[in-house]
Every structure is written in structure tokens, then in C-alpha cells.
């Protein structure tokens, strides 16, 4: 089993492990997994020249990228970062007990609901003092993504990437296709692609998480950011007519999805875009990793999911964002503030991206001169968004998305006409899960 970015168990490779490239998480030896604990115990945290940091960056590429950032911070400040790296899977599974015990001063985590969950439980420290210094480095949407439900800041973002509709420029040119601006445009384009012998929308849901991305896009385009966030947080009802409308729209698109998706991974689906057998593919920008030939990669482009409801346009972008939080009682508060102020700087992000170019900087002031055309477009798309979401398994409880939504969406994909009973079932299970601590 691998994990998606929220720590949700999914069969096969996760978005995160593939986004980060080769390396993979370290294999856990033996039957027992030692509990997460603070780096070096209480001693290291009390050193005014050291900050302890709990890291889930166990894959080789991000681990090396973070090391370069922490080394630069030490050179600048004289403060060392004592990193306590755990297997990505283990970190997510034990995060709750870890934060309730004696955690490190700072820890890697995710923006949005996943951050707000621990902030609301009092297991993280507000960092408004840090944001007073770094606030000008980020667009409004990224600021909103870094706040708890109480309006205080709890998160410093470092890297992000968008979900969008990817396509081959040469295929669109060959057939005279235009980028669809509205839902009707999208459906018409799908119909034309089918006539032209193409698979309109590449799709593989063997690992159960890709379909969640399609739901997200249709929901916030149709019902807006606020309703989407409420639904993901368990505060809106899955039997609401607005949700039924999402599935009605999705059902209209299903005939244009690639057949046999239950047995196909996202990588296999991506290959149909690479080989020009498919016209479009809705996925995260990590799809570019499947374009190993430079000419093919240079031919890859994307557009934001089309408008459905003019009241919301295309103002929301799904952009999973990684960064840092502070534990409830950091031992070296002054050092923590200095570290986070550095991590919230364009310089830190630029340094990270030198080692890991699969993502883009969260800061709107980062230097993009070394970015590829795709990275520049992704950076601009995220920076100009009114609101940013994180993907269903980060915007909601992972136990809800893994046990209810993944199988539920697959049931819908295989039987679109049974949606009413499905939504009633989802709502019942949601109430039970969200009522638990």
C-alpha cells in the first residue's frame, strides 16, 4: 500500500510518490513500527542553536531538496535544523498520537482542512507573528489556505502544483480544436473528438483516487468554493440537490471517458495522451512525468476546467500544497520563528526547486526564470486563483475519503443511475465518521 498526500491508503503508487520521482519510501522492517518521537528527545529542542523538525519527506528527491534548504538556513542564521525523518506512510498514520506526545518543534504537513483539523484540536501553535513578516510573499488564496478556522495562521506553504485538463497542442492544431471555456464547449469538444476517432478523456481509476479529482472540479465549478469546502468538512449534506447536480453533470461526461478505467492506472491512461490516442486528461501536473521524450513534453499543455456556473467562473484551482506547521509547545520558539520566516521566503522555495522541479513555488515572488513553460503556466494559474482547494483526501477526513468516497465514486462510475441511494448511503456514513473524534 502507498499513501496519497493526505496519508490516505491507496493501492499502488500514490500521487505523492510519483510526483516526487524515484526513491520511494523506506521499507519498514519487522512486524512492529516504532512510534514517532521527537528528534533527540527534550535535549535537542532546548538548544537555542537548534530547531527540531519532524519530516515525512522520506522519498529521496524531496529529502535531498529539504536538506539543501536547511543547510542554507544554518549558514545564514547559525541555527541547525535537527531533522527527524520518518517513512511517509508511518508519519501520516501516527501524526495524531505524535502531536499529542512530545513532538518536534516544527513538522511537515499539508494546507487546508488537514492543517485546520489539528489547529482546532489545539495541537498546533498559531504563527501570526511569522506571517506579519512573510505575508507579502504570498497571494491571497495561499493566505486563506494557511489559516485555521479561528482566522489565525498555522501553516507556511512551500510548494504546490495544479490539477487541470492536459492535452497535446499538436492534436488540437491538427483537428482545429479550441480550448473549451464552458461546460457546453467541453461536451461539444468531447463529441467531436469521438467522431474523429479519439478517446475524448483519458481515464484510469484502478487506484481509486483519480475520480475524486473529477468530482472536485465539477463541484466547485457548479456550486462554488464555499459549498465545496463545507461538503468536504462534513458540514453540508451529500443528499443536497446541489450534489445530485454534480453527478448529473458527471454522468453527461461519462460516455466520453476511456473504457476499462477500473483496470487502468493513471500512468497507463497517461500513455494514451502521450501516444495521441486520447484528446484530454484531467489530472495533476505530475502527468508530465509520463512524457519522457522532450518533443512530447514540449507539446504538452493544459487549461483550467471549464466554467459551469457563471457565478463562480473558473475562480477556484485545485492545488495541493505542502509546507510546515509548529507543534503546540515548541522548545525553541525564537529559532522556530526564524526558520519559518526563512521557509516562507522566495529564496527557500527557489533552492528547494533546484532539486525537485516536479512542483512550483507557493510564493508569488519566487523567481520563475528557470521554470519550464508548463511550470510557468502552473505558477500563474495558482497565483491568480481566487480560491485554492487541496484535493478531496486533503480537504476532508482521510478515513471518510478512503472508506466511503473512493468505493462510492467507483460505484457511481459503474452504475450512474443508482446515484440517489448512493448519496443517501454516503450521507449516513459521513454522519457517523464525522461524529467521531
From TrEMBL:
Keywords: Transport. InterPro entries: Bact_solute-bd_prot1 (IPR050490), SBP (IPR006059), TAT_signal (IPR006311). Pfam families: SBP_bac_1. The keyword tRNA processing does not apply. Belongs to the bacterial solute-binding protein 1 family. PANTHER family: ARABINOSE-BINDING PROTEIN-RELATED, OSMOPROTECTIVE COMPOUNDS-BINDING PROTEIN GGTB. This is Extracellular solute-binding protein.
Amino acid at each position: 500500500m502507498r499513501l496519497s498526500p493526505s496519508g490516505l491508503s491507496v493501492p499502488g503508487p500514490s500521487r505523492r510518490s510519483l510526483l516526487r520521482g524515484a526513491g520511494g519510501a523506506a521499507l519498514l522492517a519487522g512486524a512492529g513500527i516504532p512510534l514517532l518521537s521527537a528528534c533527540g528527545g527534550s535535549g535537542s529542542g532546548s538548544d537555542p542553536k537548534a530547531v527540531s523538525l519532524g519530516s515525512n519527506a522520506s522519498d529521496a528527491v524531496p529529502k535531498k531538496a529539504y536538506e539543501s534548504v536547511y543547510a542554507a538556513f544554518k549558514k545564514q542564521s547559525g541555527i541547525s535544523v535537527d531533522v527527524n525523518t520518518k517513512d511517509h506512510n508511518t508519519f501520516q498514520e501516527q501524526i495524531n498520537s505524535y502531536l499529542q506526545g512530545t513532538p518536534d518543534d516544527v513538522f511537515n504537513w499539508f494546507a487546508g482542512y488537514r492543517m485546520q483539523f489539528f489547529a482546532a484540536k489545539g495541537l498546533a501553535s498559531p504563527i501570526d507573528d511569522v506571517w506579519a513578516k512573510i505575508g507579502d510573499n504570498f497571494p491571497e488564496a495561499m493566505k486563506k489556505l494557511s489559516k485555521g478556522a479561528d482566522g489565525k495562521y498555522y501553516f507556511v506553504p512551500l510548494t504546490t502544483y495544479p490539477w487541470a485538463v492536459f492535452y497535446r497542442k499538436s492534436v488540437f492544431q491538427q483537428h482545429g480544436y479550441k480550448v473549451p471555456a464552458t461546460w457546453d464547449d467541453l461536451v461539444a469538444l468531447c463529441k467531436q473528438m469521438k467522431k474523429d476517432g479519439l478517446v475524448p478523456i483519458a481515464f484510469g481509476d484502478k487506484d481509486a483516487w483519480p475520480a475524486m479529482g473529477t468530482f472536485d472540479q465539477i463541484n466547485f465549478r457548479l456550486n462554488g468554493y464555499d459549498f465545496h469546502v463545507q461538503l468536504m468538512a462534513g458540514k453540508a449534506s451529500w443528499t443536497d440537490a446541489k450534489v445530485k447536480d454534480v453527478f448529473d453533470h458527471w454522468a453527461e461526461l461519462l460516455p466520453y471517458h476511456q473504457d476499462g478505467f477500473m483496470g487502468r492506472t493513471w500512468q497507463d491512461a497517461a500513455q494514451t495522451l502521450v501516444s495521441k490516442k486520447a484528446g484530454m486528461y484531467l489530472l495533476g501536473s505530475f502527468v508530465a512525468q509520463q512524457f519522457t521524450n522532450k518533443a512530447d513534453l514540449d507539446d504538452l499543455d493544459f487549461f483550467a476546467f471549464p466554467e459551469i456556473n457563471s457565478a463562480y467562473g473558473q475562480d477556484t484551482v485545485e492545488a495541493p500544497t505542502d509546507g510546515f506547521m509548529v507543534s503546540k509547545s515548541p522548545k525553541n520558539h525564537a529559532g522556530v520563528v526564524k526558520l519559518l520566516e526563512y521557509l516562507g521566503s522566495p529564496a527557500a522555495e527557489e533552492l528547494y526547486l533546484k532539486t525537485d522541479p516536479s512542483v512550483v513555488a507557493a510564493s508569488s515572488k519566487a523567481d520563475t526564470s528557470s521554470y519550464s513553460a508548463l511550470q510557468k503556466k502552473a505558477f500563474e494559474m495558482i497565483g491568480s486563483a481566487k480560491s485554492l482547494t487541496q484535493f478531496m483526501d486533503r480537504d476532508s477526513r482521510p478515513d471518510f475519503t478512503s472508506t466511503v468516497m473512493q468505493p462510492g465514486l467507483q460505484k457511481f462510475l459503474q452504475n450512474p443511475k443508482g446515484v440517489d441511494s448512493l448519496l443517501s448511503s454516503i450521507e449516513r456514513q459521513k454522519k457517523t465518521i464525522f461524529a467521531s473524534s
